[in-house]
């Protein structure tokens, strides 16, 4: 096996409750990660000189700071000395959008290189490595829509009813670090159970702050809530989303988007195709 092409899917946070701040500076949270059938595509081609390459370059991201390269470096101790890789990224997911683009890219890279380089690591071991790269990476390695607690690494797979989502991207880049360190962020929401969320829903504790700091997000939500009063922001933003019972409904609203608001329609899936696309050894 010398080459592999895999989907690197997007996610939505159907809700995001911040239940406290930890001594290490991270936050305890509760969220439901909904995986989508839409994302970036990563292609991998092995080489025998130990080199690692990535194309194309992403604007504003240096080679060594790209999470794809960080993921590849994290697996170097487990590969043979001569094993290298050429990686090509077909980017569809916006950066800084709160839909997991970078984390998903890192997860897909870990899974792909574990296979191509014959590292022999288990899914659990890959999740442990992935957590060092970002709190959202383990859910993409797990490849299942999941209820999450802790910093997002304590995962419980959950089956959601089929829905279609319109995801739109306001013209701004929201810094996750800025939002989680902001003095006005809500950090004391009471923990809830899965049944309570399924019955009554939840909110995104970052949304009010982001709407205040980024008028583009506020304006996008005002527009989208004309079609779904429960439309909300995902993660720390900037993307916002609404859910629909059918693709036709979602596509109908997408067709009405103002020109300054790009967006896409995707179906929620309970399992991403990541492992199904891996050839059996």
| Largest sheet report | 10 strands, mixed
The CATH architecture of the largest domain can be given as 2-Layer Sandwich
Structural class assignment: alpha+beta
Q: What's the mean pLDDT score?
A: 95
CATH class of the largest domain: Alpha Beta
Radius of gyration: 19 Å
**Cα distance spanning the termini:** 9 Å
Q: What count of domains describes the coordinates?
A: 2
Number of strands: 10
Query: In terms of per-residue confidence, which ranges show pLDDT below 50 for 5 or more consecutive residues?
Result: none
Number of helices: 9
How much of the sequence is in beta strands? 25-35%
Shape descriptor reads globular
Q: H/E series, N to C?
A: EEEHEHHHEEEHHHHEEHE
Helix content: 25-40%
CATH topology name of the largest domain, in short, is Ribosomal Protein S5, domain 2
Describe the overall structure.
It is a single chain. With 281 residues, the protein is of the alpha+beta class. It is globular, with a radius of gyration of 19 Å. Helix 1 links the parallel strand 3 and strand 4. Strands 1, 2, 3, 4, 5, 6, 7, 8, 9 and 10 form a 10-stranded mixed sheet that branches. It starts with a strand and ends in a 12-residue tail after the last strand. It folds into 2 domains: 155 residues, Ribosomal Protein S5, domain 2; 106 residues, GHMP kinase, C-terminal domain (Alpha-Beta Plaits, 2-Layer Sandwich), CATH 3.30.70.890. One of its GO terms (molecular function) is 4-(cytidine 5'-diphospho)-2-C-methyl-D-erythritol kinase activity. Its EC number is 2.7.1.148. It comes from Cellvibrio fibrivorans.
């Amino acid at each position: 096996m010398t080459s592999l092409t895999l989907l690197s899917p997007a996610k939505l946070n159907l809700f995001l409750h911040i239940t406290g701040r930890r001594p290490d500076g991270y936050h305890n949270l509760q969220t439901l990660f909904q995986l989508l059938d839409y994302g970036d595509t990563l292609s991998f081609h092995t080489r025998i000189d130990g080199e690692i390459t990535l194309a194309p370059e992403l604007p504003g991201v240096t080679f060594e700071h790209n999470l794809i390269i960080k993921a590849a470096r994290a697996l170097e101790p487990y590969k043979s000395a001569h094993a290298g890789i050429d990686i090509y990224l077909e980017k569809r997911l916006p950066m800084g959008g709160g839909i997991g683009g970078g984390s998903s890219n890192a997860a897909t890279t870990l899974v792909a290189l574990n296979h191509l380089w014959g590292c022999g690591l288990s899914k659990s071991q890959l999740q442990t490595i992935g957590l060092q790269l970002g709190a959202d990476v383990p859910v993409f390695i797990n490849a299942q829509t999941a209820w999450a607690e802790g910093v997002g690494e304590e995962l419980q797979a959950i089956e959601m009813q089929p829905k279609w989502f319109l995801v739109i991207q306001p013209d701004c880049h929201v810094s996750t670090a800025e939002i989680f360190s902001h003095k006005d962020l809500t950090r004391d929401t009471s923990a809830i159970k899965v049944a309570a969320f399924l019955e009554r829903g939840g909110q995104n504790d970052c949304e009010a702050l982001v709407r205040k700091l980024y008028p583009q997000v506020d304006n996008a939500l005002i527009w989208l809530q004309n079609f779904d009063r429960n439309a909300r922001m995902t993660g720390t933003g900037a993307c916002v989303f609404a859910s629909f019972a059918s693709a036709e409904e979602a596509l109908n609203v997408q067709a009405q988007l103002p020109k300054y608001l790009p967006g896409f329609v995707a179906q929620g899936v309970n399992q991403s195709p990541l492992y199904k696309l891996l050839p059996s050894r």
